[in-house]
Amino acid sequence: MLDQAEGYVTQDGRKIGGVVMEMRNITLRFGGVEAIKDISFDIREGEIRAIIGPNGAGKSSMLNVISGFYIPQVGEVWYKGAKRPALKPYQVARQGIARTFQNIALFEGMTVLDNVMTGRLTHMKTGLWRQAIWRGAAETEETANREVAERIIDFLEIQSIRKTPVARLPYGLKKRVELARALAAEPSLLLLDEPMAGMNVEEKEDMSRFILDVNDEFGTTIALIEHDMGVVMDLSDRVVVMDYGKKIGDGTPEEVRNNQDVIDAYLGVSHD
Amino acid sequence: MPEQLLWSAEVFLNGLMAGVLYALVALGFVLIYKASGIFNFAQGVMALFAAMTLYGIMNGLVPFAHLINAVFGTEIHYFGWNVPALAAILLTVGVMIGFSYLVQRFIFRYLVGQEPIILFMATIGLAYFLEGVGDLMWGSDIKTLEVGLPQGINETIDQVTFDAFGYGFFIDNLDIVASCVAAVLVMALVIFAQYTKQGRAMRAVADDHQAALSVGVSLNFIWILVWSLAGFVALVAGIMWGAKSGVQFSLSLIALKALPVLMLGGFTSIPGAIVGGLIIGVGEKLFEFLIGQPYLGGATENWFAYMLALIFLLFRPQGLFGEKIIERV
Q1: pTM score of the predicted model
Q2: Three-state DSSP state, B263
Q3: Taking Cα atoms as reference points, which of A34, A96, A97, A15 lies closest to residue A64?
Q4: How many CB contacts within 8 angstroms connect chain A with chain B?
Q5: Which of A263, B50, B60, B79 counts the most CB atoms within 10 A of its CB?
Q6: How does DSSP classify residue B139?
Q7: Tens of pLDDT along A40-62?
Q8: Going by C-beta distance under 8 Å and a sequence separation of 6 or more, which residues neighbour residue B281?
Q9: CA A255 → CA A6, A44, A59, A229, A262, distances in Å?
């Protein structure tokens, strides 16, 4: 199904596969404001793809288009080789696209473990009665789901807070729990909305390490948004740069860094 | 044992039984409020409507008979069959699920993200609409619901307490049944919420809409689900109250009695609704017996619950079990 013809090999020797997600000529308007103007790019299997740009560039809007929270007026979204109709966000999630939010959207009243388990909802298939009486297939399924959840909790080093209600956690840990919940869905595409926003240097380093490890260990395809250039350049394989809703650069961090438009956008040049 | 103490004990037990019925109504409120932030003023009318529908189906009434007769000049009232209670209850559950779907499809789908006061106003409209539809469908006369629940004094308890204390307690069989049903219902709801996929999704929606969407939960489905559950709880409450005091308009006013229960127990807590109901039930009966009758001239049951709720509002606005209200500046 995937377009396997053109993969590529990254600098550190990882093999990147075919196209998982392709955005074709996406335009998104809010009333008269064009948040995204005719943008096309693709995300390939196994890569870490970043979308960067200054504040108000339309990065979050782009992520919301991918995750189905916004429906673009113009353009097509291609997922796993097929054109995606206008789906609801929960339908997109069921297709295997998990996400985190810039302002953290966790289930504050639940424990960390419960939060991660809700990430497994798309993998729960047995019937209502079986689940209620806790027998047969339901029991096996619950055990399997629990194992996945525990593995991710171990992996992200949050074992010690498994039973803590999320509301009591500090910001940095909440971000990590949110990542755990998204990972629990075993997504084919993981979307991270500013995973490092509001963190100190140490927390940023931790988060960067987790993102790299997740990609390495589970082979998860990751698309992330960030406006901290430094972090993104170290982390990602390919970068899309947006400014005022337009795409002004696309390529490896090296290529993007030397792109004159990108430099202008970040250092500030008048836009007339 | 002194007589006064025995009487108080009897009043206490009867209060518990009455409290269970209050709790049943309050439960319906909590379900919808938790999952969607809608304070459903129509819960009481839903109980009335469910009880009317059950009566109508059981006795083979033709729905909208008056309307049909007025328009076509016919004289039909009955289908001429009787449906057994259990089958009729199942059919009524089906009607309440259909009702939930329609409510979601035609009202609340268009009001997603609106202010709570607007949602509240919509439920007031819904309450009056449903009341009208109920009357039009099944007629507004007082109906006696007989689904085969035992009624009258429980002889065993009367005998046992008489032998032990020399005074027989009067406990209504119907109240005992109602308590058992409520207990089973609450247990089933807890198991559903804790251990099933839909229950998990329901808790997720109650907590955070965006996050729920992102893990693949359909808000629309969950809302229909909670309205259906609330409809089912309304039916159970309707059966119990209907059997106690007949299916009539005043049944819908029990919703007002649920308000102080919710203020006591907290709007977001299922155990809170139960405990709140019991406290109100016991409190108003004991207060009436110990203070109201001897010193205040009686009839304190009408206002005791509201006074208690008012005191709670002053000192613990979130209720006994509600989520603590924290304002961050």
Answers
A1: 0.85
A2: helix
A3: A97
A4: 80
A5: B50
A6: -
A7: 999 999 999 999 988 888 999 99
A8: B15, B16, B17, B18, B19, B20, B21, B22, B23
A9: 19, 18, 20, 13, 10
